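Aim 2 progress update. The chain analyzed this quarter is reproduced below.
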Amino acid sequence: MREQFEAVIQVKGLKKHFQDFELNIDELEIPKGLVTALIGENGAGKTTFLNCVSGLRLDYEGEIKYFGKFVNDERENPENQVRENLGCAGPAGYFLSHWTVGQVGELGELLYEHFHQDVFWKLCEDLDVSRDGRRGTKVSELSDGNRMKLSLASVFAREAKVLVLDEPMSPLDPLMREKFCHMLQDYLEKGQGENTVLFSTHNVADVEAVTDYCIIIEQGRVVEKGFVEELKEKYVLVKGEKEELEAARPALFQVSESKYGFEGICLAENLEKLAGLKVSKETPSLFQISVAVLKKYSVIN
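Predicted structure tokens:
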């Protein structure tokens, strides 16, 4: 098991009420220097949580602490340490529709001390934000994928210590998803243990290779969390013939079956309940763990 990690963001008693939904997170920490994936179904509360963390929402109860010292209402401190070191990107309206790509770069330089125009334009080129290369292209003229890429270029062009990214891969094509993963790896290597990424996703398979820590959220609550390698020790993928299913079912966390047999996720601590059964045991993927946990707690099964 890993030693206790240093937290770059600490959440306590976070609550946000809507008419038919409540985000309720008692305590949660985001480890420094790693990539943390926030996994959940649509409507599970991922965006609400990230909006609270990023400062886009301030109408919530509870406390969010940044870098071990700055609390909610201290974000506008004289040094602007949180604003300067927190980079946010996502499908939300971060840019006004009438802004041009060039204005996004200019505003980035005005708003943030460590915003590099040369890096921004290199990223826009690498990500193919505007095919004709014109800086006068309006945000409203960009596709969903290009708006996301513009948002990513604007945060990766900074020297922010923490990136909070809401569904960054959803509108990207497969090639750009691969490029995005390389960008995450380069960002972490450049930070030498100081840079942190927190992003939400429901496309778990695409990001498993770059994810260090995982938080699974369902119906506004954290239902599982931990380092990926530890979760893969906590849960076991079990496969067997159909005739073994009923005997195995009580030990399984979640199970799916077909005419050929079954497979399910079992807590490692319950493996002894499968003794004597003709089943195989494998290390599950993060995707398989996430699906099993979400099915366990989802209101839709």
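The first helix runs from residue 46 to 54. The chain has ten helices and 14 strands. These observations will guide the mutagenesis experiments scheduled for the next reporting period.
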